[in-house]
């Protein structure tokens, strides 16, 4: 009986194990990696890539090529791939992005006009709490007063400082 050498096991892989090992070692929680564990992670990665590519190819209706938009569509529609939604978002055009940002800005303006009686410090803390989850564009007029308030200056004292510089 011929014994099976371990080298055919390595030929089953298409991804280089050295690259996978480098990626795994980039984690601060990983000190050493056993060869069997490395093989399993590499094989699982290949199987995941194969699954993602097959689903995207099916989604693309058997097109001749597989594009990013096909992969992103699979990620956005498949619940099991939810962890990749931020990494692989759907592609949008610049025009669509500008429309989305304009809608967000309009909704922020309408919500801020309802609470216009709030003090500057309250609106500043509100904007800080929303900026953690999404980026918010601030008007140029408001940003000057916010930065002055952070520096302890009022708009009138800021003007007097600039008039002193001119003299």
Automatic annotation (TrEMBL):
Compositional bias (Low complexity): 126-135
Subcellular location: Nucleus
Domain Transcription factor CBF/NF-Y/archaeal histone: 14-64
InterPro entries in UniProt: CBFA_NFYB_domain, Histone-fold, Transcr_DNA_Rep_Reg
GO cellular component assignments: CHRAC
Chief location of this protein within or outside the cell: nucleus
Bias type Polar residues, positions: 145-155
Single Gene Ontology BP annotation: chromatin remodeling
Gene3D superfamilies: Histone, subunit A
Region (Disordered): 104-167
A molecular function GO annotation: nucleotidyltransferase activity
Alphabetical keyword list: Acetylation, Coiled coil, DNA-binding, Nucleotidyltransferase, Nucleus, Phosphoprotein, Transferase
Top-rank lineage group of the source organism: Eukaryota
Keyword Phosphoprotein: yes
Quaternary data: Heterodimer with POLE3; binds to DNA. Component of the CHRAC ISWI chromatin remodeling complex at least composed of SMARCA5/SNF2H, BAZ1A/ACF1, CHRAC1 and POLE3; the complex preferentially binds DNA through the CHRAC1-POLE3 heterodimer and possesses ATP-dependent nucleosome-remodeling activity. Within the complex, the heterodimer with POLE3 interacts with SMARCA5/SNF2H; the interaction is direct and enhances nucleosome sliding activity by the SMARCA5/SNF2H and BAZ1A/ACF1 interaction. Within the complex, the heterodimer with POLE3 interacts with BAZ1A/ACF1; the interactions are direct.
Summary of the function given for this chain in its UniProt record: Forms a complex with DNA polymerase epsilon subunit POLE3 and binds naked DNA, which is then incorporated into chromatin, aided by the nucleosome remodeling activity of ISWI/SNF2H and ACF1. Does not enhance nucleosome sliding activity of the ACF-5 ISWI chromatin remodeling complex.
Protein name: Chromatin accessibility complex protein 1
Organism: Aphidius gifuensis (Parasitoid wasp)
Organism placement in taxonomy: Eukaryota, Metazoa, Ecdysozoa, Arthropoda, Hexapoda
